[in-house]
Amino acid sequence: MSQLDSTLKLLGITDTNIHAQDVREEFHGKGSGRKKYLVVHADLTYMLTKCPRCGFSDLHKNGHKLTRIHVEGPSDQPVILELNKQRWRCAHCHRTCTATTSVVKANHSIGNKLAMHALKLSGRSLTLTNTALLTGISTTSVQRILTANIHPHASRNLPVNLCFDEFRSTKSAMSFICIDADTHKAVKVLGGRLNKDIKEFFINQYSVTQRAAVKRVVMDMNAAYQLIVHELFPNAEIVIDRFHIVQMIGRAMDQIRVSVLKQLDGKSREYKVFKSLWRLFHLAHPDAKKSRYLFGLNEYSTQQNAIDLGTAVSPEFKAAYETYLAIHEALMGGHPRVLKRLITEYQPNSSVMDTAIATLRKNLQWIINAAKSPYSNGPIKDINRKIKELKRTCYGFANQANMFVRIYQLVA
Question: What mean pLDDT is predicted for residues 351-374?
Fold first, then answer.
């Protein structure tokens, strides 16, 4: 008997009211789901004097109830605990009761430790199928554990600094996500991204005082969100994410580079720089001292020399490159006055850069806020990356509610 009790300790079962009687191996399941289980047969009994329902001391033993509980094992082999629970009958209220244990919740067939293990595995972005294989339970049971333990809900207190963004959820639907810009915890994930849904959520969830306390809302240049920010948060300032500003200016510069590239001789050094070394034009501080072998150009040169070779080809591209570099430096360096001067004093030259600068002028105050503020949409972009990895690992989701459960497990 002592050796069998040691088996319980090996399984992490410390309830002294459980006494093992037998250990064996059995096959359960059909087809590809057929597995070999380690089955531990044990009894659960203890002294019970008062009825838990009526409180009278008139209990009599009334046989046993056999339950099969999936528990966590020391190895990859799944373990089933066949627990013979003692039953009692009360002569006063004529009702029966069954012995309970800390190993499993009442009326459940999956042990508490195994349920926590399944939660940890799903937190690593594993699929339900892989989690079920590792724990020895069904995919439906894994989903039931997730639903019972993870409750997607809005943050009780509205943070003073918010990040807005959107992501693709199920099928072709776009969903809205809002996080705390300081703690990076989720405030709310909405199934849609329409303004009416966002307004309805914030108005119904938070009071006017709470919404008036919001200081900043960080977002990309989504005009739809800009329309409702001051309506929801009257004292908040909009901060355009710095990445999107640099990305827009960089794309305009690249379009000019490609147009110049098409006019060059395919064997010239300038063509090679524009074709293979285009990333050099996006460097904030290119190296002008150390020579290195530049693949594509196939010669030793400094990064600055390669850039000078490219900008010497076209005055239009040189102007776009200098504009990109100046705006990047002012924005990332935190120089709002310089940034404002660069945008307002820019002289159009009939290039695609004119359109990009016009967009910056339209959002000028919010662009200036980006240079002043230390906040960005970096944290929410990292969450979106995790969501994409989760979707890719799980081969997408058909049920949006189940997907949001997994998302809250990552960011809550």
Answer: 94
How far apart, in Å, are the Cα atoms of 379 and each of 95, 128, 238, 285? 56, 27, 17, 25
d(CA 110, CA 112): 7
DSSP-based three-state secondary structure for 266: coil
Interatomic CA distance for residues 106 and 96, integer angstroms: 14
> How is 1-17 classified by DSSP, letter by letter?
-HHHHHHHHHTT---TT
Q: Distance between CA atoms of 303 and 294, rounded to whole angstroms?
A: 8
Over residues 324-344, the pLDDT tens digits come to: 999 999 999 999 999 999 999
Partnered with residue 317 across adjacent β-strands are none
Rg (CA), the chain: 32
> Could you report the per-residue pLDDT of 220-230, keeping only the tens digit for each?
998 889 999 99
Q: What is the dihedral of CA 160, 236, 365, 286, to 10 degrees?
A: 10
How do strand 35-44 and strand 79-90 relate by DSSP bridges?
Answer: parallel
CA distance 291 to 228: 52
Over the chain, what is the mean pLDDT?
Answer: 92
Question: For residue 321, is it left (φ>0), alpha (ψ between -120 and 50) or beta?
Answer: alpha
Per residue in 243-281, pLDDT tens? Answer: 999 999 999 999 999 999 999 998 999 999 999 999 999
Transcribe 276-308 into DSSP letters.
H-GGGGG-SS--SS--EEETTTTEEE-HHHHHH
Q: Which H or E run contains 151?
A: none
Contacts for 210 with CB less than 8 Å, ≥ 6 apart: 157, 158
Query: What is the C-alpha separation between 337 and 323, in angstroms, rounded?
Result: 16
Tokens linked to 59:
């209990």
Percent of the chain with pLDDT over 70: 99
Minimum mean pLDDT range among 29-38, 159-168, 202-211, 289-298? 29-38
